[in-house]
Amino acid sequence: MPSVSQWLLEDGVLHLNHGSFGATPASVLEAQDRIRQRFEASPTKYFVGGEYQDELDSARRVIADFVGADEAGLVFVNNATTGVNAVLRSLETSLAPGDEILVTDHEYNACVNAALVSAERTGAQVVTARPPFPLESSQQVVDAVLGAVTERTRILMIDAVTSPTGLVMPVAEIASALEPDVAVLVDAAHGPGMMDFDVSALGVSYVTANCHKWMCSAKGAAFLWVRQDRREGLYPPVISHGYNDAWPSSASRFHAQFDWTGTQDPSAWLTVPVALDTVAAMHPDGWPGVRTAIRELCLTGRSILLDALGIDPPAPEDMIGAIASVPVPPADNSGSEIFDPLMAALADNHNIQVPVFTWPEPPERLLRISAHLYNEESHYRTLADALIAELNH
Questions:
Q1: Would 62 be classed as within a structural domain?
Q2: Residue 196 maps to a domain
Q3: What is the tens place of the pLDDT at every residue in 268-310?
Q4: Alpha helix (H) ranges present in the chain?
Q5: Given 255, 276, 297, which residue is the final one in a domain?
Q6: The pTM is what?
């Protein structure tokens, strides 16, 4: 199995927070440097002469194949939050006062904020479904979400894997009950790479996901996929040459609008094929082996923490991928910030990077672990010891 030396992770620190920002193998960063050197050698030739478009289209084909999407509907964005904003901003013209954007209270804060702004602009309102946590089955999520749908619901935004609670959500089952009357937007920031992720099998209108998390590309690489019947009228947050077809090298107007939104560094996007090959080579069974290994390690780490805390699993194993959250006892110093002070204590006193969220509201809080190939079982035992020490402090 790979060692931590294949990443640029700081020695002496336990890195148990892959889910927030990912970690990029050193060889992928070296490939990014080579890409930058190539376009900096002759920027005009690279960007205008067709080399950039050829490499972008090639990377798009690789990603589309990896996630089971048609490449005609897949475009690059810098992160999943940008993809969410592109969809919500584009749908504002279809929203009327009193219409509803449905989210869950497990949704990522930044994306909820995007929904709130769209609601403010249109007179719509954001409605929050509240699936329980802890929970016993995914059916409780289905019931909570569908139970919050009304005749005014126009959009459902839902995570593929939730950020605070680390749950694999039953997206396909929910979408089958709502589409096409309700447009389902999937924030799959944690999906591809963590699990066998097939866009076409979800039955949804929109999927956006990061490549810099579990796929381990350079930071700033993500994609947005839009179903064919939803592509007309879907715009990037930044309008540029593609709006009037002045970027003719792209295969379609839809691609053109996202392929060139002004001069930027596209090297992160172009590292995705290298990252996929690099991580696949780290396991003898390739990506299927990677996904199995990191999920099993995450479940082991969760069991270690549950034993240390003396609590039952807060979610069934079939709702866990490579991140998992466990409740920790409430504390008087829990505040209204996203991150609880326990997170800083674990970092400052024990050199452990792991998020502790204030969720769903103070003083309740969750500790979330991640697992990737640079982690090992002993890391979670060290975390459990440190956690108990801090809780008893």
A1: yes
A2: yes
A3: 999 999 999 999 999 999 999 999 999 999 999 999 999 999 9
A4: 18-21, 26-41, 43-48, 51-67, 80-91, 109-122, 139-147, 171-178, 199-202, 253-259, 267-270, 272-280, 286-309, 341-350, 377-391
A5: 276
A6: 0.95
